[in-house]
Amino acid sequence: MHSDVFDRYHDTESFIHRLDPRVKVSVTVAFILSNALLPDGAWLAFGCAWLCLLFINMLSNLGIGFTFRRSFVALPFALVAITVLFSIPGKPLSTFHFLFWDLTITDMGLLRFMSILVRSWLSVQMVILLVAVARFPDIVHALEHLRVPSILTTIIAFLYRYLFVLVDEVFRLLRAREARSAAAAGARSGGSVVWRARVAGNMAGQLFLRSYERSDRVYNAMLARGYTGHLLTINPHELHRVDYVTAALAFFVILLLQLIGWL
Amino acid sequence: MTNVLLVQDLHFSYHDGHSALRGVSFELCEGEKVALVGPNGAGKSTLMLHLNGILTGQGDVTVGDKRIARDNLPAVRAMVGLVFQNPDDQLFSPTVFEDVAFGPLHMGLPKEVVTARVESALQAVRMSGFRDRLSHHLSVGEKKRIAIATVLSMNPQILVLDEPSAGLDPRARRTLINLLHELPITMLVSTHDMKLVEELFPRTIVMDEGMIVADGKTKEILADAKLLEAHGLEKP
Hints:
The structure holds two protein chains of two kinds.
Chain A: H1 15-18, H2 21-37, H3 43-59, H4 66-70, H5 75-78, H6 84-87, E1 92-98, E2 101-106, H7 107-133, H8 136-145, H9 150-180, H10 193-224, H11 241-262
Antiparallel strand pairs in A: 1-2
Chain B: E1 3-13, E2 19-29, E3 33-37, H1 44-50, E4 58-63, E5 66-67, H2 73-79, E6 80-83, H3 87-90, H4 96-106, H5 111-124, H6 140-152, E7 158-162, H7 170-182, E8 186-190, H8 194-200, E9 203-208, E10 211-217, H9 218-223, H10 225-230
Parallel strand pairs in B: 3-8, 3-9, 6-7, 7-8
Antiparallel strand pairs in B: 1-2, 1-4, 4-5, 9-10
């Protein structure tokens, strides 16, 4: 059994796919940063940023609505920002009663909230695009090249490798429980909530122990091949002229977005 | 023939006091392919972990002309290629290439040599086209072969395999047997697959309860029904 639920790479041929992963990663980070820096209510700049996104979508042969369709998964997280609706002083728009509080929505609050929503929505789309056009190991390489501390990139690489193994492990545990979750004829199956919670707790403990022991075995496998505390890799990537030009162009566009937003 | 591996009176106990090895001695000659059989918990895996110094017990392990000690561990680990039972433990890098390159890179070889070694190791296990594949997308049989490639790339003098044929379907098992048959390298293979033993290994070592209880020609050992039964083994 393989769990590929986290693999979002789309194996297509395109100009964007061929770019060096460093370009993709740094442009993505710059784009997200730019979104965060744009002032509240810079709708024109937000709109332009979205057009840029659609354009890259098109360039990567994924279909113009690719990131748009997938972007809504992240919207619930924007709800964390809901308090700004009431907490920013400004002209009151409407007031309602919630439990013990009278909450007043202000125009400034609404503006801030909508801006945060749009910012996160744009940024999420860019990241969705990044993982669709760059293989995960390439992204990790790019981070290495961009001088992200090797301890972090190592952790990310291991996380990625063993996430799948762990998820498979979880599925096996769940299936083993399922297989024995029988009911006697006429009786209700399942036992009390406390009992079920204990079973779930035991399973979590099992998972921890199995992972812990696996980490031991993995470490042994690393030692057996000469690991001494430093991870070494060969990175076959090379920056070509087209990469430099694209990166320069992308940064220029991001700068333009900022100008549009602030002027 | 020259000895490539010499184990002398090896003792080892785990932290919980369970003694896993109780005086193990044997030697491997160059080019020999030897099976290591015995019931679960006999100490086979523990013994294997001693052969390149991941575990260290009392007694001597000599690889080539080097007695394993703290300061020559890197050299010894390049000489003894240890392949673990579960390939998911062995393949820890995101891509096949990086996994196979791990050993040679840590030996400090230059990039071109590393790349060449990766290519030839993958070729040896007939997985040349898998260079850029992601490890978690491979089948168990493919993972096992890549796992062998990850140590072949270090050009080891001895290959130590823990249960290579466990969990493989007949075709994957057959491919693996052919592969082991072809590899011109000294080999110590722990297994429960007695058919594999009969087919591939002229010499067999039987372990039980942390000791070697028999060491000799496979044919003779497999003919000794009493011995096999006493140590929980079956004739193929």
